[in-house]
Amino acid sequence: MQEEPFPSDPAQQRKLEKKLAGLRLPTPRNTSEEQPQYAGRYVFPENPAGLRAVVLDFGGQPAVRFQFHRNWVEIPFGYGEWIETGGLPAPNAPNFEDDWIFFRDAAAAGGWKKDGLHLDIVHTRTLFTDHYHFQLTEGGLKLTIQRSLIGKKGAFELFGFREEDHD
After folding, report:
1. Are 137 and 129 in contact (CB under 8 A)?
2. Can you tell me the distance from the alpha carbon of 38 to that of 98, in angstroms, rounded to the nearest whole number?
3. What's the longest Cα–Cα distance across the chain?
4. How many CB atoms lie within 10 A of CB 54?
5. Where are the alpha helices (DSSP H) in the chain?
6. Contacts of the segment 1-5: beta carbons below 8 A, 24+ positions apart
């Protein structure tokens, strides 16, 4: 081990800074305009995630609101840009793994494709990225949630029903 710091190398420092400045996590691509038919509140039967309802809101700043038991978490997101959220972890949030972290220090971006809304949530203090796919079905809303961690992926599906009066 060397006790002295490495000598300064301004050229290498600039090269590193340029490389780091160019690193970007891509956002989901927006290839369709489906949001009006998706807007609303969807309720879910009892499930292991404890998810009771989802509200898709596309007026003003797009956002998804998740209800776990009696607690709500709102996640604003951008189209083609990451929107940071200081969202709080939902009490009694999903506990599929001991280290499940939900919406704390996150950034979210979404995009519409022919098969529905794709929403990515990056947990900025962890290695986790969550991908949410909202897809309308004849009976309501199919929500597929996939958590990614380097080399490890897990997904599950939930089916919710539109609640016509969600105010």
Report:
1. no
2. 33
3. 68
4. 20
5. 10-21, 35-38
6. none
Q: Name the token pair of 137.
A: 């079905």
Question: The pTM is what?
Answer: 0.75
Cα–Cα distance, 154 to 107 (Å, whole number)? 20
In 3D space, the residue among 97, 105, 119, 101 whose CA is nearest the CA of residue 30 turns out to be 119
Range among 17-26, 107-116, 117-126 rated most confident: 107-116
Q: Pick the closest to residue 53 from 75, 73, 37 (CA basis).
A: 73
| Domain covering 39-162 in this structure, CATH number | 2.40.128.20
Q: Give the pLDDT band of residue 156 (cuts 50, 70, 90).
A: confident
Are 85 and 107 spatial neighbours (Cβ–Cβ below 8 Å)? yes
* 92 pLDDT higher than 50: no
Domain ranges of the chain: 39-162
Cβ atoms within 10 Å of 123's Cβ, excluding its own: 18
User: Residue 6: how many CB atoms within 10 A of its CB?
Assistant: 7
